[in-house]
Amino acid sequence: MVKVAIDAMGGDFGPEPIVQGCALALEECSYEPILVGRRSEIEPHLNEALKRRAIIVEAHDVIGMHEGATDALRRKESSIYKAVDLVAKNEAHAVVSAGHSGASMSLSTLRIGRLPGVMRPAIATLMPTTTDGKHSLVLDVGANVDSEAKHLVQFAVMGKAYATNVLRQERPRVGLLANGEEPSKGDRLVKETHGLLKELPDFNFIGNVEGGDIFKGSVDVVVCDGFVGNVLLKTGEGVADAMVDVLKRHTKRSLMSLLGAALMRSAFKGLKKDMDYAEYGGAPLIGVNGCSIISHGKSNPKAIKNAIMQAIRFTESGVNDQIVAYLDRYRATPPKREEQA
């Protein structure tokens, strides 16, 4: 059975939504929840199922959102440190945290460690598309802001493995985010990466893709550096919120608009659902020797439930073994002289 360590103190609203999310996940699947944090604040929110199944690991310290990520490396009594350490010690298969994302990334990379051959882990996220039930996987969206071409090639390889094993996409199409579809477009990093990706055998690299292609469903895995990816992610979230607000404002202007809004209520609900981060739960840090899911600070119980479900699917899929195999197959591992440098 999959054991999931949950940072119960992470997030903007304290333990309550975190614990409630753990309970919702138990209603849908069987797993072993390990709640890490202040017992006195966790126990009041436990339902009967969690009282029977959950293990509580005491952690008095909490890393605040305003604190530096490097602080987490020294604060071994913090909830996020102890949660990650459970995976590092093989006492849990996965860790889920809605707390300090920088701390989660740093601790996961340094304590759990990287998979063999992985130079840099990457954060991957799902983006909605106009095709029903289909999403685009985008990576990296924030773990690395100064990537080199060799790193982007590995992101592509890891993204292909995740799309194949976790998302169950057959022969996923991989695209490189650029400011135009032509191979001549892009900065030095994009051009160099394009040249390397097109040489990978049987990789299904479809070339450069533009921002709009992400939402059309014409590409399955989109590769970019962490700076561009994070801007893309935050812009997408902002546009989604703005769209809903604009639609609400316009539907209140006339009786016909109100009638139209009533008729389109289900469509509006579908739009909101597609854009809601709670539907995806969190973003996996791909490339670490385990499973680390980084959730939104504002995560509600539904988001935490979905993050836990994602952690279980990740663990059961065996994707990490496939990543290692893919890196070897596509010769994306760094030369030994670089590993020793």
How are the SSEs ordered, and which strands pair?
Elements: E1 3-7, H1 15-28, E2 32-37, H2 39-42, H3 48-53, E3 55-58, H4 71-74, H5 79-88, E4 94-97, H6 101-112, E5 122-128, E6 135-139, H7 149-165, E7 174-177, H8 188-197, E8 205-209, E9 221-223, H9 226-251, H10 255-263, H11 265-275, E10 283-286, E11 291-294, H12 301-317, H13 319-329, H14 336-340
Parallel strand pairs: 1-2, 1-4, 2-3, 4-11, 6-9, 7-8, 7-9
Antiparallel strand pairs: 5-6, 5-10, 10-11
Helix pairs in contact: 1-12, 5-6, 7-8, 7-13, 9-11
Provide a concise account of the structure shown.
This protein is of the alpha/beta class.
> Rounded to an integer, what's the Rg over CA atoms?
21 Å
The portion of residues assigned to helices is 40-55%
The global form is globular
Write down the secondary-structure element order.
EHEHHEHHEHEEHEHEEHHHEEHHH
Number of strands: 11
CATH overall fold name of the largest domain: Isopropylmalate Dehydrogenase
Structural class: alpha/beta
Quaternary state of the chains: single chain
Look at the structure and name the CATH superfamily of the largest domain: Isopropylmalate Dehydrogenase
- The second-level CATH architecture of the largest domain is 3-Layer(aba) Sandwich
Largest sheet: 11 strands, mixed
Strand content: 5-15%
Compute the number of structural domains: 2
